[in-house]
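Write out the 3D structure for:
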Amino acid sequence: MSVIEVKNLSFRYSEETDFVLKNVSLSVEQGEFVAVLGHNGSGKSTLAKHFNGICLPDEGTVQVCGMSVDADSDLAAVRRRVGMVFQNPDNQIIASVVEEDVAFALENLGVDHDEMHRRVREALEAVDMSYYAKHATYKLSGGQKQRIAIAGILAMRPDVLVLDEPTAMLDPKGRAEVMQVLHKFHEAGMTIVLITHFMDEAAQADRIVVMNEGEVLLEGTPHYVFQNAGLLWSVGLNVPQSTELMFLLREEGYKVPLAILTEEECISVLDDLLAGRIEREGL
């Protein structure tokens, strides 16, 4: 069942500017982990903002959990179903104490006091931040702040979690912390849409959508998308290092598979290569 359905979506920020999105159609299934790739200006972040009504379609339709996202819809209901996490964790922290920050949206929604405390506790447990409940938010690392931002969204009990480059401003440790949390939620059945420019993050998704100049350029499983390395390179995108190594070996004439993503897959191919089980053209 589709929880997000986009049909022929076009959007521009004003009548004086060009369209940022052009006739985009895609769907996200319940429980799916979808990564959206694209260079700066490709339209990927604008697309994400349509998923919870921050932006509204100029043309076409966007449906979330069966609700139409347009000027006449109940955007509050849409935003309760789709939680949004942004790039800069500092811009999402409201309160000076961790548990108060997680409770902020619930207080605005008028959630019962006891229910609010239970949700805050469960959300902090979900992102492995219970120990920091009473801590000052300004003392947290970037990765910890982003996990608190995610906890604040989780406390609202959304059906879909949309993250717009949540690891872009984090160090490798912080990135790993956030991705670990996302996998935990995905395994529990949550639908996740991750906007990213990190190829290794996209490779961990169920499906990848590649945006270019406001249009869907390519979509499919990570193995399918990344074996189209030439196309990705032509629009300024990279591929995982293991995939790139396979392409370099192909250029040298070795008959290695191109649909390689992980280090484990790469090591297996290199073992076969060193053992002479992979032929070289012309020999």
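The mean pLDDT is 91.
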